[in-house]
Amino acid sequence: MRSCLVVWVESTNMKGKTMQDSTTLNKGNNRLLTEKEVAAFLNLSCSWLQHKRLSGGSIPYIKCGRAIRYRLDEVRAYIEKNTRVSTSQSKGDKNDK
Asked: What SS3 state is found at 28?
């Protein structure tokens, strides 16, 4: 059984009505995600992602003209890198000491 993630993305259609669109992302997929998709996926604001891009420590991103895109694999790697089991655990240390 392949594991997959479901990301809910809120978007606006041409008439201004809000609709919800679900996109299934299969594990290992190197799909490009928008800033809004990554923010929704991580339950963070777009402004947090923007601040991190400016100050450093951001998820690696691609800039295509004015558009910002994130690789799904990079988002997963960021989650893995920042996963902790204790508040006293240092960055990069996966073992609880």
From this structure: coil
